[in-house]
């Protein structure tokens, strides 16, 4: 699903009408502005945007936010569950977190085998990563395709890395990686491509991440180490700890500790390309 930024409708005086700013909406809904930005990064709400990027909300947006708050408050739900509970409507189409398009039965079987070798039950793993047992079982049977973030959560809970879980071949000890010889991680995730920029045993796990408009990592990821990234084309939003959203544009760079829950999303109308480095290679 592609999430597009909507332009506010000006009134006859060239000013937006019946629109509220994020601070006003936060007071009405009873949450912090950072919480609303988090819900936006999780694709639960899609506010209007001014030409300068300022968020504006309609009355319908406020009602939806109130419902989101009630769902989080009254039920032990993840963002995935809230999206499913909200369903789809014309202004805010819901996005299923796990798609059955291009589902990878080999990946699911590999995860199941690794889980069983560690004598971990399906329910134990589901609790560890915050995924329902039925959704996890569907993934292991090759009937659904989790998001990048979810695959990473599964890999780390099973004591491995994302490339290893995906079955990426071991590095061939080459110091140079030609542009047309990069190994692509077989994520099967729509809208996101991750290519390795290294072919040697190294403490630097460097990757080229390409993110189409309206797509992102999905569930937040956490793992050991530190990360560096630089945006070489387009722009992305990076959310840390579920509350802090940073907008990164072409030429911007950032470093952070990988143990902080992090996710990314491309809300711009153009494809983003990021050089992303993890150390040690724990992604």
TrEMBL record:
Coiled-coil intervals, chain numbering: none
One protein family per Pfam = HTH_3
Keyword DNA-binding attributed = yes
Any one GO MF annotation of this record: DNA binding
Q: Which UniProt keywords apply?
A: DNA-binding
- Residues in HTH cro/C1-type domain copies: 112-165
* Family annotation (Gene3D superfamilies): 1.10.1660.10, Jelly Rolls, lambda repressor-like DNA-binding domains
Which GO cellular component does the record give, naming just one?
cytosol
Where does the record place the HTH merR-type domain? 19-88
Which PANTHER family does its entry note? Answer: HTH-TYPE TRANSCRIPTIONAL REGULATOR (PTHR46797), METHYLPHOSPHONATE SYNTHASE (PTHR46797:SF1)
- Identify this protein by name: Helix-turn-helix domain-containing protein
Organism, per UniProt? Gordonia desulfuricans
């Amino acid at each position: 699903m592609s999430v597009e930024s909507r332009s506010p409708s000006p009134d006859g005086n060239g000013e937006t009408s019946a629109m509220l700013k994020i601070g006003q909406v936060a007071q009405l809904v009873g949450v912090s502005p950072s919480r609303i930005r988090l819900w936006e990064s999780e694709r639960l709400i899609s506010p209007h945007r001014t030409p300068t990027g300022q968020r504006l909300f309609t009355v319908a947006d406020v009602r939806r936010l109130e419902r989101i708050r009630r769902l989080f408050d009254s039920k032990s739900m993840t963002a995935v569950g809230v999206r499913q509970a909200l369903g789809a409507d014309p202004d805010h189409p819901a996005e299923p977190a796990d798609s059955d398009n291009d589902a990878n039965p080999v990946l699911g079987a590999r995860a199941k085998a690794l889980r069983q070798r560690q004598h971990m039950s399906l329910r134990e793993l589901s609790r560890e990563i915050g995924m329902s047992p039925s959704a996890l079982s569907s993934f292991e049977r090759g009937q659904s395709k989790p998001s990048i973030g979810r695959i990473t959560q599964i890999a780390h809970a099973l004591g491995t890395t994302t490339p290893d879980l995906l079955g990426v071949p071991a590095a061939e000890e080459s110091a140079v990686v030609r542009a047309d010889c990069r190994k692509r991680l077989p994520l099967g995730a729509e809208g996101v491509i991750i290519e390795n920029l290294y072919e040697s045993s190294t403490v630097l796990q460097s990757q080229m991440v390409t993110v189409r408009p309206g797509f992102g990592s999905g569930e937040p990821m956490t793992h050991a180490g530190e990360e560096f990234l630089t945006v070489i084309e387009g722009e992305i939003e990076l959310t840390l700890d579920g509350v802090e959203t940073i907008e990164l544009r072409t030429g911007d760079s950032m470093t952070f500790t990988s143990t902080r829950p992090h996710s990314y999303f491309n809300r711009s109308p153009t494809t983003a390309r990021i050089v992303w480095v993890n150390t040690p290679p724990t992604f």
